């Protein structure tokens, strides 16, 4: 893959380095160890790559590769420092995706609506598997109306939920969507990651809260006035003895 990608990208300028990222592994090991042992996930066949050119002009020329096919898959080419806002008017939001779905599934599914500019599936940062939703951006704004008609259509035996893209919806879903247990089960040869045990952060929070409560109780007890025995009452324990 490295040599083929280098051959494809070198036609636009001199390449200094190529680094692969977002590789999915079959076991929850440190990434370097999993890479050396070859513990790659059999159902995740795509990843990201950073191609570093010798000059900025070559990197901009390579943007023409966006949407082209490489090893029977569409490439999403963009600058690494691109701060251009996503155009929601040309995008649709896709929900109820299979966690093992690939970008290529959506390229084929929405290709009949018009030219697709890019597809992005929101993925878990640890497992690199999908969280169940994505967005598709078209070249032409008119393609959005055709894409909305595919609401309820099936991809990988799941009925998709298609709606107009909005920045607020994406931010809300990125904050609220968590990795479900089915993603953990999708990892091959792995056990439960943490089971029902609380995380270390929760344990530290519980210990800090308990310590604070103890200090608060100690401080409140120290403010209470000490009881002094009445004048003439004996200081020893037990009832006072009667004088003969």
Features:
244 residues, two-stranded antiparallel ribbon
TL;DR of this structure?
By secondary structure, this protein is an alpha+beta fold.
The major beta sheet can be summarized as: 4 strands, antiparallel
Regions with pLDDT < 50 over 5+ consecutive residues? 176-197
Query: What oligomeric state best describes the polypeptide chains here?
Result: single chain
Outline: extended
How many strand segments?
10
Hey, roughly how much beta strand do the residues contain?
Answer: 15-25%
What would you report as the Rg, rounded to the nearest angstrom?
30 Å
Number of helical regions:
8
Order the strands across the largest sheet as they lie in space. 6-7-5-10
| H/E series | HEHEHEEEHEEHEEEHHH
Q: How far apart are the first and last residues' alpha carbons, in Å? A: 108 Å
What is the average of the pLDDT values? 77
Give helix % range: 25-40%
* Structural class computed from helices and strand pairing: alpha+beta
């Amino acid at each position: 893959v490295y040599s083929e990608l280098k051959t494809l990208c070198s036609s636009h300028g001199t390449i200094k380095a190529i680094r692969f990222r977002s590789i999915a592994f079959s076991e929850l090991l440190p990434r370097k160890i999993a890479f050396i042992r070859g513990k790659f996930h059999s159902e995740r066949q795509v990843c990201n790559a950073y191609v570093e050119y010798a000059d900025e002009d070559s990197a901009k020329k390579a943007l023409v590769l966006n949407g082209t096919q490489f090893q029977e898959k569409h490439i999403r080419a963009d600058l690494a420092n691109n701060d251009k806002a996503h155009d929601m008017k040309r995008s649709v939001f896709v929900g109820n995706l299979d966690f093992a779905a690939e970008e290529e599934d959506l390229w084929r599914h929405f290709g009949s609506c018009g030219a697709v500019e890019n597809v992005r599936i929101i993925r878990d940062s640890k497992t690199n598997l999908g969280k169940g939703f994505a967005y598709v951006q078209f070249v032409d704004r008119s393609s959005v109306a055709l894409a909305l008609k595919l609401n309820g259509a099936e991809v990988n035996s799941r009925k998709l939920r298609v709606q107009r893209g909005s920045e607020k919806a994406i931010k809300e879903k990125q904050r609220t969507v968590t990795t479900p247990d089915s993603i953990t089960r999708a990892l091959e040869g792995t056990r439960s990651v943490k089971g029902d045990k609380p995380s270390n952060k929760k344990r530290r929070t519980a210990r800090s809260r308990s310590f604070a409560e103890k200090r608060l109780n100690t401080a409140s007890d120290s403010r209470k006035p000490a009881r002094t025995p009445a004048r003439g009452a004996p200081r020893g324990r037990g009832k006072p003895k009667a004088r003969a």
